[in-house]
């Protein structure tokens, strides 16, 4: 199920003069080990979101620079099952899919799943 698609606000400025749109990616807890962290806390990344950017393309860009994240996040081109992806505080699959567009100011979070019983 997908929520309504947002469009960037038209502020009347020429597109060439506008600063490139950015999406914040927050990597949380043990997932930080895959991006140079120690497995605690948070790491923030400011990722480009050019026109046509999707959740998938932003995550592919970040994971392309962090091979350990790439191995942990992707399985045969789709998301693996051990890292939860949130887009603007909603779990992926609720309001967004991997192919949903993202715009400047959107937020993506990568949170490790905890299992056990």
Feature tags:
117 residues, alpha+beta, Ubiquitin-like (UB roll), 5-stranded mixed beta sheet, 15% helix, globular
Given this structure, which CATH class is correct? Alpha Beta
The number of helices is 2
Numbering strands along the chain, what is their spatial order in the largest sheet? Answer: 2-1-7-5-6
**Helix/strand/pairing category:** alpha+beta
**Series of secondary-structure elements, N-terminal to C-terminal:** EEHHEEEEE
- Look up the CATH topology: Ubiquitin-like (UB roll)
The helix content is 10-25%
Radius of gyration: 15 Å
CATH architecture: Roll
- Count of extended strands: 7
Q: Per the principal axes of the C-alpha atoms, what is the gross shape?
A: globular
Number of domains: 1
Would you kindly provide a written description of the structure presented here, covering whatever features stand out?
The protein contains 2 helices and 7 strands. The protein is an alpha+beta fold and 117 residues long. The chain has a single domain, classed as Roll (Ubiquitin-like (UB roll)), CATH 3.10.20. A 5-stranded mixed beta sheet has the order 2-1-7-5-6, with helices on one face. A hairpin with a 2-residue loop joins strand 3 and strand 4. Helix 1 crosses helix 2.
At a glance:
The protein is of the alpha+beta class and 117 residues long. 15% of the residues lie in helices and 26% in strands.
Which helices and strands appear, and what pairs or packs with what?
Elements (H helix, E strand, L loop, with lengths): L21 E7 L13 E7 L6 H11 L1 H7 E2 L2 E2 L3 E5 L2 E2 L15 E6 L5
Parallel strand pairs: 1-7
Antiparallel strand pairs: 1-2, 3-4, 5-6, 5-7
